[in-house]
Amino acid sequence: MFYRPEDGHGLPHNPFNAIVTPRPIGWISSRGKDGQDNLAPYSFFNAVAYVPPQVMFASTSAKADRGDTKDSVANIRETGVFCVNIVEYAMRDAMNQTSGAWDRDVDEFTLAGIDRAECDTIACSRVAGAPANLECKLTQIVTLPGEANVAVFGEVTGVHMRDDCLKDGMFDVLAFNPLARLGYRDYTVVRDTFALNRPGE
Question: Domain Flavin reductase like spans what residues (predicted)?
Fold first, then answer.
């Protein structure tokens, strides 16, 4: 099968995000200038550079009470900071609860019963029990083609790692089993790994 996105795919559901899988989930915490905390998952997320360490996530829809975007992007525009919280399998239900299109005055930490802690390098809350948290300062917001599509880039200014996830000096993903997004309503979880040496190593 071949299709041009501009012509449609003719399938019951859009296959695009089922093709680009698995995708890590950026559980983004942010705080508005009014002090209101927000927590929401984004599956268009990844690391993009080592030095300095940088990440990005993309928001692809809008809410009526935020105009052209969603709470996360609106807050980051106001304050210039955000935190990426890594999602483990054990927190899948809490993460999913925070994915709703809640009103801007809803605190998803409270809604989903998630313990929070204050970040060290930025004025923002983080998921206290997460395997890792990446504190970020905004570097740029890029407007993408399409309605409400924006990519948010940030430089990592602080890194938290849960002590039980460090094994022999390495961050061990099998200690917590990262959750990843597939297509449609599907997710997957990392439960095994293997190593490959690059040519010449």
Answer: 18-173
Give dist(CA 168, CA 67) in Å, integer.
48
Domain ranges of the chain: 24-189
Answer yes or no: are the C-beta atoms of 106 and 66 closer than 8 Å. no
Helix (H, G, I), strand (E, B), or coil: what is residue 35?
A: coil
- Residues 6 or more apart whose CB falls under 8 angstroms from that of 107 comprise 36, 37, 38
Distance between CA atoms of residues 95 and 93, nearest Å:
5
Sign of the Cα torsion 105, 110, 116, 118 reads: positive
The number of CA neighbours under 13 Å toward the Cβ of 43 is: 21
Q: What CATH number labels 24-189?
A: 2.30.110.10
pLDDT of 67 strictly over 90: no
Nearest 5°: phi and psi at 6? -70, -20
Task: Evaluate whether 129 touches 109 at the Cβ level (below 8 Å).
Answer: no
Residue 30 has pLDDT above 90, yes or no: yes
Report the pLDDT averaged over residues 41-64. 96
> What pTM does this model have?
0.96
